[in-house]
Amino acid sequence: MKVVNTSNNGINYLKTLLKDKKGVFSRAMLWRIPHSTKESDVSLKIGRYKKAEFWDENILESDVPKSELTLDSDELNSLISFISDNYAPLKSGAKKYIPLNESFDEKNLEHIRALFENPDKTKLLGLIAQNNLLPDDLLIDLEHQKRISALKEFELMLSKNLLEDSWQKWFKENPWVLGTEFVKVLEEREIDTENITDYLMQAYDGFVDIIEIKRPDGGLKFWSSSTDHNNNYPSSDLTKAITQSTKYIYEVEREADSVKFLEKTGNIKIVKPRCVLVFGRSHDWTEQQKEAYRILNSSYHNITIMTYDHVLARAKRILGIDEKNVQPSSDEQTKEIPF
Q: What CA–CA distances, in Å, run from 125 to 26, 116, 132, 292?
């Protein structure tokens, strides 16, 4: 933990040893100069000094340093901006780069927009890959930020009473939240003329699985309002959803040898399909209800029941988001005192 010191004349300061060599050492000091009529200034002093015989960082051999430089507040801010914009690209070996805070004229922005709005996405991706326009680490970061934005939208949607169509659209755009066992959402939803699932998915093993979602609101209850012998049991709403999911599994299995169905799903085979049912909320469950949920899920070998809160929690773990993280305070500032 950094500790801000105060000089005899009431100036707050913070110092650090930059390098310790045999006969000399260098250090830097930030200090905060308060003003009654304007915002306080922060200055920086960097110096290199000869060591005293019995060396202590606070004891100099001479009051005259080997070299010393003091930057006022404006100079310090310019230096911080310069390092922030240029240190990482220079260290990585970049020959040309544009600092992110550098202004773009409208012409340059239009060129960038035109490039990424090209309708021939395959050709565009080929151009980007062949010329390494987007490094792998940037692509990964962009995807990560996209998923974080999607989760923020998910949490906002949970605070509203939305219809099922809104949720179907969100899950179709973000199938990654359902786990790595799913590769992609199939365009086809119809099992037959009477049974239409929310999604048919291609699993990582190459076979068809089913996703069924029910809106988290609308009065649908996960648990019955009463208990039986002090045990929680599914509500009639959940029982109906489970029954519907089981029927979909049965109907999909019946289509396993259907040439027509295989053509609609891109010849993805059907072998023992499974279903993920997303139903209800669990943010306010008791420990007893959490245990009952674990028992309930274990009783099905081809259906996995998840609440919207389970989906959200797993997605946050996938992204490495820790809700307990606290952002560090930025109000620590330091200020002047002679070395």
A: 50, 10, 10, 48
Spatial contact of 215 and 164, defined as CB atoms under 8 Å apart: yes
DSSP tag of 178: G
All residues at 6 or more sequence positions from 151 whose CB lies less than 8 Å from its CB, including other chains: 177, 312, 315, 316, 319, 321
What 3-state DSSP class applies to 151? helix
Amino acid symbol at 215: R
Which residue type sits at 337? I
Give alpha helix (H) positions in the chain.
73-92, 106-116, 121-130, 136-158, 164-173, 236-254, 259-264, 287-298, 308-319
Q: What count of other Cβ atoms lies within 10 Å of the Cβ of residue 277? A: 24
pLDDT in tens, the chain (339 residues): 777 888 887 788 888 888 888 888 888 888 887 777 777 788 888 888 887 665 565 554 455 667 888 888 888 888 888 888 777 777 777 666 666 565 566 666 776 777 777 777 777 777 777 777 667 777 778 888 899 999 999 999 999 988 888 998 899 888 888 877 777 788 777 776 577 778 888 888 888 889 999 999 878 899 999 988 889 999 999 999 999 999 999 988 888 888 887 887 788 888 899 999 999 999 999 999 999 999 999 999 999 999 999 999 999 988 888 654 433 333 333 333 333
The domain limits of the chain are 104-133, 154-306
CB atoms within 10 A of CB 314: 14
What is the distance between the alpha carbons of residues 131 and 135, in angstroms, rounded to a whole number? Answer: 10
